[in-house]
Design brief:
The structure is a homodimer. Helices cover 27% and strands 32% of the residues of chain A. By secondary structure, chain A is of the alpha+beta class. In chain A, the strands form three sheets. Chain A has a six-stranded antiparallel β-sheet with strand order 4-5-6-9-8-7. The longest helix of chain A has 14 residues, at 20-33. The radius of gyration of chain A is 24 Å and the shape is elongated. Strand 10 (253-260) of chain A pairs antiparallel with strand 7 of chain B, so a sheet runs across the interface. The first copy, chain A, binds a DNA duplex through helix 3.
DNA sequence: TGGGCATACTCGTATAGACGAGTGGGCAAG
DNA sequence: CTTGCCCACTCGTCTATACGAGTATGCCCA
């Protein structure tokens, strides 16, 4: 076992009140912040850290799990612990559903991804008729039965979001909206063809830690929250025509909005 | 040590591949989901769980730390582990900076909080002249020196967000904007009095786990992400007049936006 | 050359024990 | 009755050890 390259990590302060495992986490965090460990770089192994700091392995593991919770590092069984690289973020502009973007045909996700030089995929598409949950029903204006469209989006093979759209069943049944492939311009284009001129969207944004299932669906590393976005589409008569419930890997997105000042 | 009330938690499956500490976490998670432990309720103590599942204490602690990372529970030294109550969320509407809300005088935060029946406070106010960071400078349009206003907001004694506003120094120096109390309607009202008619705001929203300092400033429990919001205000000539960098406790907020459809 | 295996290194899981420190209730002394 | 202390219970920190499982590498043998 080779000694740690000197200068990478300092020593503990035995007189400090701060718990040893926190001091170790502090040292590593500082080393990452100062660039002594770069993005994607491998940290010293647990055994090396044990040696360097003269503590037991559980203490070192405790430090590392601290840093994992902060989203700073992620460990890979059999390989090591690595500084978590910041993946390229996808910027969602507030005009991304503007009609003009719809006219050309392709789905917004595909167009954007290809423009950014990524390979987009859509996955696990499922179209179903079901009873609306209380929340969805309220958002759609007391609708009982809905058509749900569930799908997952990937960029370069990495899942980044999954979403479920809910539409009033009497509106969507028998239309192309009920097909797996809703055609050029997506379901919003189909809604307008059905005479529902879209007026505006409401979006509600929250952030939280993922559930077990979300961690699996998005293959999330420890310490990565999700953004939960619920969008409701309204037609020009003020009727809600669609609710889209989206869960996104928070490290893959920045949402951009424009607000008027009056 | 009393036995656990039966029915609250099940047993382990020794034939399962799933790690014991995960199985225990699963059991507790399910019990919470199904309402067998309510919000704010105390979980069985570590000793009781050790007894119930017949495992060592470190294994139980591992399970609990798993649940903490998910934001489901939080532990309090000397008291126990509790199901994390969902605090009341503050809804930020996209018209919250509309001019009409400014005319009346009070700060937006105060008005909103009082309307919701909470006790608002503003804290650690600090006004400074400083050199703009690269990011802030870029957002303000190559401004070198800025006035920064830093403050923290609390609801019923709980810190929920802290924010720093940056304004071009040549714009703000010597005005009431440079005073700790910017007067009725806040700095946006002062900017308009200075002839800078506000046109719109850009907001960028990201979510991530908090840094050490943010955890302290917002007194965040484990497993609570932050929402990082950067707002830029533009006047009617398209000049950026303010950048506000805000970090919010994600469990205290839902952001609401309205997007036009064309 | 190519395939497969042994091996050494990585992190993952689990045990058992010890002591420290925060909290709250009950009891005893004033 | 009030005050203050002690104790029991809680989680926090740390050690030492053991074995399992995933990964990479190099060597040997076919």
């Amino acid at each position: 076992m080779a000694a740690l390259p000197s200068g990478l990590l300092g020593a503990l302060d035995p007189t400090s009140d701060r718990a040893v495992f926190r001091q170790i986490a502090d040292q590593i965090r500082e080393a990452i912040d100062k660039g002594r460990f770069k993005e994607g770089a491998k940290l010293p192994s647990e055994a090396e850290l044990v040696e360097h700091f003269g503590v037991s392995r559980m203490t070192v593991r405790n430090s590392i799990s601290q840093l994992q919770g902060e989203g700073l590092v992620s460990s890979e069984h059999g390989k090591g612990v690595f500084v978590r690289p910041r993946p390229p973020v996808r910027r969602l502009a507030s005009d991304r559903f503007a009609r003009r973007h719809r006219e050309q045909g392709k789905a917004a996700f595909t167009v954007e991804a290809e423009a950014a030089g990524s390979r987009p995929e859509v996955d696990s598409l499922e179209v179903k008729e079901e009873r609306a949950s209380q929340d969805i029903s309220a958002r759609l204006g007391s609708v009982r039965k809905v058509l749900s469209r569930r799908r997952r989006y990937l960029l370069d093979g990495r899942p980044v979001e999954f979403a479920t759209s809910y539409l009033p069943l009497d509106l969507a049944r028998g239309t192309q909206i009920a097909e797996p492939n809703p055609g050029p311009g997506g379901i919003y284009a189909r809604l307008e063809e059905l005479g529902r001129h879209l007026d505006h969207f409401d979006e509600e944004v929250q952030a939280r830690m993922p559930s077990q299932e979300e961690t699996k669906m998005l293959r999330l590393a420890a310490g990565v929250p999700v953004i939960h976005l619920v969008r409701t589409a309204y037609d020009s008569e003020g009727r809600a025509v669609e609710v889209c419930d989206t869960v996104m890997a928070a490290d893959a997105y920045v949402l951009a909005y424009q607000l008027p000042a009056n």
